[in-house]
Structure formats: C-alpha cells, structure tokens
Amino acid sequence: MISALWRGWIRARGYALLPLVVLLLAAAVRLHQLEAQSLWNDEGNSLRLVERTVPDLLEAASQDIHPPGYYLLLKGWHTLAGDSEFSLRFPSALFGILTTACVIALGRALFAPGVGGLAGLVVALNTFSVYYGQEARMYALLQLWAAASLLVLVLWLKRGAPWGRLLLLWGVINAAGLYTHYSYPFVMLVEGVIFVLWALPDWIERRSLRPLIGFILASGLTLLLFGPQLGGALHQITSWPRTGYDVKTSEGLFTMLRWLLIGNIYGVPNQPAAESVVIWFLIFGLVGLLPDWLRIVYLKAWWRRLVPIMMLIGSLILFLALGLYREANLKFLLPAQVGAALCVGRGIWLLWEIGSPLTFIFWESVPRLVAVFGTVAILSFSKDALSNLYHNPAYARDDYRGVAALITAEGRPGDAIILDAPNQREVFTYYYRAGLPIYPLPPGLGGDDPATATLTSDIIQSFQRIFVLFWGEGERDPNRIVEKTLAANAFEISSAWYGSVRLVRYASMPQMGTPRALNARFGEHITLMSAAISSSTLAPAEVLGVSFQWQTDAPLETRYRVTVQLLNSEGKLINQRDAEPGSNIALTTTWKPGEAVLDTHGLIIPVNTPPGVYTLIVALYDLNNPASRLMVQGADALTLSTVQIGP
To answer: The pTM is what?
Structure first.
C-alpha cells in the first residue's frame, strides 16, 4: 500500500516538479561566476566583431570559418546590454537553459515525463555544456538549435507528418542552425536518417509520398533561407585548412563519449576518479536502449528509441569520418550530447519503472537501488566537476585580464608589447588601456619569415624592454621567428603562463661587455667557452644582461637548465633566472658536438636591493632533478663576476 502510494506520488508530483528543479539548476550553474574569468582570445574576436557596423560585421565574418548568425544576435544584445564579461556571456547561458528545456520536452515527447526531467538533468549539470554556456561564442546556440530542431521533428513525426506549422518551423530552425555553425549539417543528416527510419515502414504499408514531400519542402525552405550564405559557406569550408589529426577510432570514440557523458572536466589534481562514473553512465545508456517490453505500457512506435541513438552515434561517425578529430574541435559535438542525455535519462527511468509489475519486493528494489545509487554518483561527480570548472586553474580560460594588469603595473616609457600571434589584439585591448605601443606579429596572416625577423629586430633596437604574449604562434608563426629573433638579440627576464598564454619579458642591451674566455668544464661534456655581462654597476629595478657561449664534445641525452643567480656577501640569494639555453629553444639534447650555442639571460635587480657588492654565479642542473647540478672546477656553480648595486 505504501509502495503504491509512493509510486503514485512520484508519477503525479515528482515527475511534474523535476523539470522546474532541473531548469533552476541549469540557470544557477550557468549564471554562477559568469564574469569571474577573463575573456579569452575567441571571445575577444566576438566582441570586436559585434562592435562593427552590420555591413562590416558581415564582411569580416566572410573571412572567417564561422557564419554570421551568432554575431548578429550578439550584436543586438550588445547594443542593449553593453560589453561587460557578464553581458557578453549571458546569451550563451540563456541558450544553455533553453537547451535544457528542449531536452526535457524531447524526453517527454519520445518516452515519458520522467525521461525528460532526467535527461534534462544530465545536460543541465554536464560541464561540457556548462563550459560553453559560459563562453561568448556560438557553441551553446549550436546545441540549442539542434535540440529545438530535433524536438520539432519528433513532434511532427508523432502527428503522422502532416503539412503545417511544425514543418515550417522545422525548416526555419535548421536555417538558423546553418547560420550559426558550419557543423550543423551533421544535425540535418542525422535527422534525415531518423526520418527515413520513420517513413520507410509507413511507405511500404501505405505507399504514401506525402511525408517525403513535406520533408523535402521543409529542407528546401532551409536551403532557400540559407541561400545568401551558401556560396561563401562552400568557399570557407573547402578552402579552410584541415585542423583535425589522425587518431585511432577506439581512442577517439572513448574521448568523445567521455566529454559527452561526464564532461570536459577530467583528470586533474584532486579530481575524483571518473571511471566509476563512466560505468554508471554506460549502464544507464545501455538500459536506455532496451525496448519497452520491460514495462506494462508498450510504445509501439519503435523508431523513438532510435532517435537518441542516431543523434549520438551518427554525429560521432560523421565527425571521425571527416577527419575533424582534435580536442579543440570536440565542441562541435555539443548537439550529440542531446542524444547521450536522452539515452541516460531513459535508462534511469526504466530502471525505476520496471519494478512496478513485479510482486517480489527484493527483485523490485534492485533496479531502483541501481538507479538511485548511480544517479547519486553522477550528481556527486557533477558537483566536484563544477567546482573544478569554477575554481581549478587547470580549467581556467586564458587570463588576458591578469596579463594586462601586470603590464599596466610594470610597464614604463620605453617599453613595448608584441602579440604573437597578432589576432590576440582584440581581447588584449579589451583589458589593456595604457599607452605602450602594441605590435601584432607576424604581419597579416604570417608566412613572410624575413619580414617578421626584420620587424622584430627593429622593435628590439627601438625599446628598452619588451612584453611578449605568445599564443597560437604554432599556426601564425610556425617557425617561431619572433621568439628566435628575440632569443638571439634580447635578454629574457621572465616567463609565466596565464592559461595557454605565455607572457615573456625581454630587455634589450645595446652595449654588452667584452666576452671573457672561461673554458670551464661542466660535467663530462659541456664547456662554458665565454661569458659577458652588460654592466658591472647597476641600480635597483635595472636589468643585468648575461650572455654565454656553450659547447659540448658529445651528444647529450639529458636536458639541462641554466640558473644565473645573484648572491649577497653572505651567500644569500637576491634573485635568479632559470631557463633552458637559448630562452628555452636551444635544448641541450639538440646540441651538436663542436658547435657554439648562444645563451642569453636577463636578471632584474629587485627594487629593494640595498647598495653593495654582489656575486654573480652560473650553474647547470638536470631539468628533471633540480638538486642534481653538474660539477664545475670542484664546485656545483661557477663564479662569473662581482656586480656593484648602487642607489
């Protein structure tokens, strides 16, 4: 009696309340700390595009790999709400909430209200969806259009595919999807397969072409609405360089399923082991594929079970077949998460429901216990994963805000800024408002290495200190001309990572002292041939330049790091500069016997250094074991010279 009342309450009230709870959760996790992290490079591009006039925006978008739909929507919102981080990201958060609502409706339309609520819960809390729901880019909108299109298609098929408003709406939504991202045809192809699976038995039985004609007309409407962009889209897709790389099918599928099921927050320090969570997702997903004979109520429309399967598997197959696989491209698979969530949600629901007709309490309780424990495990993991998303630096976006703050605080007249690659300018200038000159390098789209080297050399000769932001140089400056020119002609002071952005500070030294021959042997094979310093007298806040010539008499298998240290009269460390030779470019494992290796270092004198005479030393140590220094002249370091620090 109590069990029956409990089941009745869940069906009457629990499943009704679940969608509201899920939508509130989806909103909470997407709006929480929405503005906390810095905008990163691509978000800066979004901002600068929407600041243009509409004709300029369309022209700029025609040179990019993304269509203009999202940018036009963001421009309208930007006009009303401004350009704060919160306002720029709010549309994506809203798209994520609406996607959750569509998934809830999809689960209800395909199976039952409980499936909708549980599937919506998976999307609401999955960090893959949340991450892009907090980014001022088009990927949350891509997922929304996919979920909305699939919902309308399912409603249309459930009604027997009559011509009407749903058909018109479906064509319009798909056009909006094409205007949002060029991966949207994946969704349309999968929907085409779903339609064929639905229509084929009906056509065999009744020979009616009416649904097919409706499907073709709706697809034609999509192409008609997308017609103005079609030529540009074909040119962009066919001319854009291939960004994927080869991967084993099993490895690629595992990674993609992991992102779709448990999210992109994974494998970081203090992160709970995700293997058990994967198992729960797989259990629920596999159960969700089972037919409805496990329940009293049997859904004769067998095609419904294939909708989430096709949305999931079809997208993965197309993604791999087209050679798109790389981690940066996995966000194109956000539509496939809709299918994954529906499979998992239906699995949890079935496990709870299949006990209803059974009379033995033990057997009735087992599937429900599995459903409850598995769901609790998933919710627990989601809580920890979301905490990592908000607070773990390993998943923070590139911190241009922090970079700009440091340069603003430490920059002074006579300094300059280089952006390598140049398309960092959009986001960097959002945060940096001080007056140092900014040089985006290489010019244009890159490719002219001599011109890039010349421009970099001119900057070195014109400024005392240079702040350099390295990001994406693998595509725009693949031969590392900017970095190599700086390493050969300037002195690196420091290097720090801000996400995937590396901020390196250099000092130019127009005049260096005469190199002093040393011929000091470090270990068995390495010789320090000579050394030179920029000055033996400096003031606090100035930079001491040190230049070395290294040589080896045999190939080296160990990577060594150089440490240059300034010590006071008591041997206490005042400052040091550690780096692999050649500003981390001339690795010791690449040295050729007998060839001289140039190695420069910049050591800044701390502002609070008291006047006095200081000792400059150099040492080499194993990169993987800093305590293991190479011996030189019976000691673990070589004294180079003394330096006078004055007021």
So the answer is: 0.87
Q: How many residues does the chain have?
A: 647
Contact indicator for 506, 486 with CB cutoff of 8 Å: yes
| β-sheet bridge partners, residue 620 | 562
Question: 42-51, 172-181, 393-402 — which one is most confidently predicted on average?
Answer: 172-181
User: What pLDDT score was predicted for residue 364?
Assistant: 64
Token pair 């690795």: residue: 587
Helix axes 481-489, 449-462, angle to 10 degrees: 40
- The mean per-residue pLDDT over the stretch 500-505 comes to 94
pLDDT score of 10: 57
On the question of pLDDT at 488 being above 90, the answer is no
Task: Write out the two tokens for 127.
Answer: 């960090």
pLDDT of residue 1: 46
Instruction: Tell me the residue ranges of DSSP E strands in 337-384.
Output: none
* Domains delineated in the chain: 2-395 (no CATH), 400-507 (3.30.110), 516-645 (2.60.40.2550)
Count CA within 13 A, CB hemisphere, residue 525: 15
Quickly list DSSP for 146-169: HHHHHHHHHHHHHTT--SSHHHHH
Q: What is the β-pairing status of strands 438-440 and 415-420?
A: parallel
Tokens of 17: 């309340």
**CA 597 vs CA 261, 487, 529, 581: distances in Å:** 50, 12, 10, 8
- Mean pLDDT value across residues 266-287: 68
Residue 29 has a CB neighbour count (10 Å cut-off) of 25
* Euclidean distance between the first and the last CA atom of the chain, given in angstroms as a whole number: 89
Distance of alpha carbon 475 from the chain centroid: 16
Of 367-376, 413-422, 559-568, the poorest mean pLDDT is in 367-376
Rounded CA separation 467/434 (Å) = 13
pLDDT higher than threshold 80 for residue 642: yes
The two beta strands, 501-507 and 465-470, are: antiparallel
Angle at 122 between CA 137 and CA 150, to 5 degrees: 65
Radius of gyration of the chain (CA): 31
Match 């064929």 to its residue by tokens: 196
